[in-house]
Structures are given as C-alpha cells and as structure tokens.
C-alpha cells in the first residue's frame, strides 16, 4: 500500500480522511454472517493477469488465490503500476528512490513465496499517488498484456476502494477487460478499513469468496512478511502502514472479489 498523496481535491481529501481514520475492527467483520453466503466464482481457463497499484496490493487482496493458481501450474502474470515510493513521505532513512528499490525487492521475495514465476512479472514504474494521470496509458498496457498472454481473467484493485491509485488501476482494468472481452474481478484493500458491514457504498451483491486452504494461507502470510517497509516502523517514520489490525483483514480463510457483471 501507499498513503494517499499530499495534493488532494475535495473528494480525494474526504477519501484520505476515511483511510486515515480509525478503521473497523476485524472482529466486527468476523461476526458478520453475510460472507458465508457469498458464492465461490469459477476460475476461467487460461492465464490470469493480476494488477496492483503498489507492491503488496496484489498479495493482500489476492495472494492466497495466486498461490493456489501457481501450485496448480496455472500461468499467473502480475503487473505492478508503481514502485510504492510515496509510502513514507519525508523519510531520510528511505527517500523515494531507495524506498522504491526496497519495495521492488520485497515484492520479488513475496512473489517467490507465493510461487509466481519470475518470468511473468511486469512493472510500469508510474509515479506513486499519480496513477490517475496515466490511466489511458495503463488501460492500453493492460489490454496489450491481456491479448499477448492469452489471459482468461483480469484481477485488479476495486475501483471504489477510496485510494486514488487503487481506483485508477481498477478503472483502467475495467476499460481494458471490456475492450478485450475478458472477465474482471476486483479485490478490495482499504475497503475493510473504512467500510462497515452492510455499508451502502459497497456492492455486496457482487461479492464472491475464494476459500483458502491452510497451505495457501501459510504462503500468503509468508509473502506478507516480506513487506518489511510496510509492516514495521522506520526510525524517522514511526507510523506503520500495515499494522497488525490492518493485516488482520487480509489473513482470513478466504479472499473477496467483486465480480464485474457489465463491462459494456
């Protein structure tokens, strides 16, 4: 993940406040019975293209299922839009260029832990917090990758996640998937923080659950631990991006995807 950018329009400022506020406790989500009734979607045939705005998004939202696909020898392609260099603004310990290098290393280790082939990893290096300015280029790149890989499914951050970069990647994925005629699943990341059960802002009727085995959960936990810059404080940046209470949302025995039903 990365924090919202410093230059905010009014709507972006409201979204940033929702993300920066105290979040919904995982115990509240665990007590909500609705996810137990969500259907399990059938995985289409062919390779799967997984998109992320920042290094770690793909692991938090879809890491367990990616591990399952890799174990089944399914071809999993991962496209990361940014290097996440804006997650610790003002840090002298890890200024942007050093942080970008660190996060690329962490992602490589995390994808290794999931079993994702190193030959199927793609990087765009767009500016962190500024993905929306490159949405057209991103959509074109995703469409080209969907065609060249023969992907049968596109998976991306949810376009209602309230983080501008996540939403831009989600919108670009929707445009690309529609142009190629490929199904689209979107995974929430920050939603579990700012939303509450039955929240009217979330399309619960399109939510599906992807059960995870003990082995898949273990691989996902191992992958998440690789993101040291996000799960531990820096000497000059004590705020942790992914504290235990945030990680708890992404350590369940299932993952959630919002299935797009109309890509016209």
UniProtKB/TrEMBL annotation:
Give the compositionally biased regions (Basic and acidic residues): 1-11
Compositional bias annotation for Low complexity: 12-22
Ranges where the record places region Disordered: 1-26
Show the taxonomic lineage.
Answer: Bacteria, Bacillati, Actinomycetota, Actinomycetes, Kitasatosporales
Does this entry carry the keyword Protease? no
Instruction: Indicate yes or no for the key word Zinc.
Output: yes
The UniProt keyword set, sorted, is:
Zinc
Give the source's domain of life in one word: Bacteria
Q: Which organism is it from?
A: Streptomyces albidoflavus
Q: What is this protein called?
A: PIG-L family deacetylase
């Amino acid at each position: 993940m990365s924090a919202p950018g410093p230059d905010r329009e009014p709507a972006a400022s409201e979204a940033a406040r929702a993300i920066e506020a105290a979040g919904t406790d995982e115990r509240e989500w665990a007590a909500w019975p609705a996810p137990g009734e969500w259907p399990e979607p059938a995985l289409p045939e062919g390779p799967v293209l997984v998109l992320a705005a920042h290094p770690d998004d793909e692991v938090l939202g879809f890491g367990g299922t990616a591990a399952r696909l890799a174990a089944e020898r399914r071809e999993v392609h991962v496209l990361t839009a940014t290097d996440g260099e804006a997650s610790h603004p003002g840090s002298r310990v890890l200024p942007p260029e050093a942080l970008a290098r660190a996060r690329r290393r962490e992602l490589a280790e995390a994808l290794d832990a999931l079993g994702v082939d190193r030959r199927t990893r793609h990087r765009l290096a767009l500016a962190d917090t500024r993905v929306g300015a490159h949405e057209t280029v991103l959509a074109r790149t995703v469409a080209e990758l969907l065609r060249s890989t023969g992907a049968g499914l596109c998976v991306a951050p949810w376009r209602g996640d309230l983080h501008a970069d996540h939403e831009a990647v989600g919108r670009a994925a929707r445009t690309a998937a529609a142009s190629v005629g490929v199904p689209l699943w979107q995974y929430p990341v920050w939603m579990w923080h700012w939303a509450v059960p039955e929240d009217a802002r979330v399309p619960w009727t399109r939510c599906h659950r992807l059960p995870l085995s003990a082995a898949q959960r273990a691989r996902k936990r191992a992958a998440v631990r690789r993101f040291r810059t996000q799960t531990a404080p820096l000497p000059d940046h004590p705020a942790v991006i992914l504290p235990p209470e945030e990680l708890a949302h992404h350590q369940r025995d299932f993952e959630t995807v919002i299935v797009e039903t109309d890509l016209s």
